[in-house]
């Protein structure tokens, strides 16, 4: 079900794109004019939100029920349902560590990388623009030279787009012997994993957890992409 805020955006888009009145835009989108013009008069509870965030950061092991007790002791008039809703929206659960998954069997070691195009590493980076629109960056790194071979930016990636990027890179630099990918890249479908790997003549090395050295390398690359350029550059 679409939220009213999104439906208001649709009505405004119809008005601007097609130069129609508010009445006609609401009729076409099936959204009532009264709901479109409604303005919330609910208290934003800024002080309560800030205090709940402070308590959650100082007491990371506390859930919303314990935080509700602390707020009541300080004199805040808020029931547990309101505290739970603010607790969920503020993402106060980030400090609580999740249970660590343990491997059920021993893992085999990685083969050594001794030359260029011996092994590539491929992973995604996610971020948001100033208007909260998400985008993703596909990064491909040579594991031997630590060279960033390609960085592709899109709002969303399809499997054929990743395949086209790999084909274009293979024509320029040659085919790698193997490609290391993360689980998120592997979930894009078997069109990348099996048929394309056979067509390029390489072996794919899937993994079940992040390799520390390889992940640190990609994080350094991502931090370099996020840093603004220097004033004299």
The helix count comes to 11
In the sheet with the most strands, the strands line up as 3-2-1-4-5
Q: If you average the pLDDT, what whole number results? A: 77
- Please tell me how large the radius of gyration is: 25 Å
Topology pattern, helix = H, strand = E: HHHHHHEEEHEHHHEH
* Low-confidence blocks of residues: 187-191, 206-210
Helix content: 40-55%
Percent range for β-strand residues? 5-15%
Strands, count: 5
The biggest sheet amounts to:
5 strands, mixed
Q: Ends: how far apart?
A: 48 Å
Kindly list the characteristics that best describe this protein.
233 residues; alpha/beta; five-stranded mixed β-sheet; 11 helices; 5 strands
What does this structure look like?
The structure is a single chain. With 233 residues, this protein is α/β, with parallel strands linked by helices. It has 11 helices and 5 strands, in the order H-H-H-H-H-H-E-E-E-H-E-H-H-H-E-H. It has a 5-stranded mixed beta sheet, with helices on both faces. A hairpin with a 5-residue loop joins strand 2 and strand 3 (148-154). The longest helix is centred in the N-terminal third of the chain and has 15 residues, at 4-18. The chain starts with a helix and ends in a 7-residue tail after the last helix. Mean pLDDT is 77; it is low at 187-191 and 206-210.
């Amino acid at each position: 079900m679409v939220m009213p805020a999104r439906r208001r955006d649709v009505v405004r888009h119809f008005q601007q794109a097609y130069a129609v009145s508010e009445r006609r835009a609401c009729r076409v989108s099936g959204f009532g004019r009264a709901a479109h013009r409604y303005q919330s008069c609910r208290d934003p509870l800024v002080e309560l939100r800030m205090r709940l965030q402070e308590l959650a950061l100082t007491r990371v092991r506390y859930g919303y029920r314990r935080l509700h007790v602390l707020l009541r002791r300080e004199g805040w008039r808020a029931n547990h349902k309101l505290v739970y809703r603010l607790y969920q929206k503020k993402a106060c659960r980030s400090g609580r560590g999740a249970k660590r998954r343990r491997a059920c069997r021993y893992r085999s070691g990685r083969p050594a990388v001794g030359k260029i195009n011996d092994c590539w590493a491929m992973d995604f980076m996610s971020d948001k623009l100033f208007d909260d629109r998400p985008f993703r960056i596909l990064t491909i790194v040579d594991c031997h030279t630590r060279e960033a071979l390609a960085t592709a930016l899109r709002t969303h990636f399809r499997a054929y787009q990743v395949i086209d990027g790999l084909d274009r890179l293979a024509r320029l630099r040659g085919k790698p012997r193997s490609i290391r990918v993360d689980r998120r890249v592997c979930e894009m479908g078997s069109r990348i994993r099996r048929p394309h790997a056979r067509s390029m003549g390489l072996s794919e090395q899937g993994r079940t957890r992040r390799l520390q050295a390889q992940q640190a390398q990609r994080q350094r690359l991502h931090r370099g992409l996020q840093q603004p350029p220097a004033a004299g550059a």
